[in-house]
Fold:
Amino acid sequence: MGGVSETQNPPRDGEGDRAQRGGGGLPPSLRRPETYRARRLRREMSLPEVLLWQRLNGQQVGVKFRKQHSIPPFTVDFYCPRAKLVVEVDGLAHDNSDSAASDAARDNALRERGYDVLRLPALLVLNAIEEAVDAIVARVETPLRQSLRDRHLPMNGEDL
Structure:
């Protein structure tokens, strides 16, 4: 009977060779490692990150945030796409000189790519979550953060 046996059903919806590839969409050589790192970090968030995410999740502060967002080659704690704001929660490990230098280099690299970076001490998040959330909201709403398309640009020799 025409190549398909009665005991074997033909593949549905393009699933024919899925078992041979291993599933998961892209072949392993094309999968981005930072995506897997971000997924792992989402599962292993610290207590201050979890507490802050509970306040930022679901636009409770009026703005959408992403947690453990990948901005290659970095994975940032929280990211607000509207304001291009990166929020990092720094624990005690960030206080030593090696980490401070690494954090500064990372912040500079992100700023050069157009991101605004806000670092919050983990103790602030643990002891004064409202103050931490207020600092984030204020940074998002700062008028100086508006993009050029939202501003009036001078025409025909007008001054700014």
Notes: Residues 17-23, 145-153 have pLDDT under 50 and may be disordered.
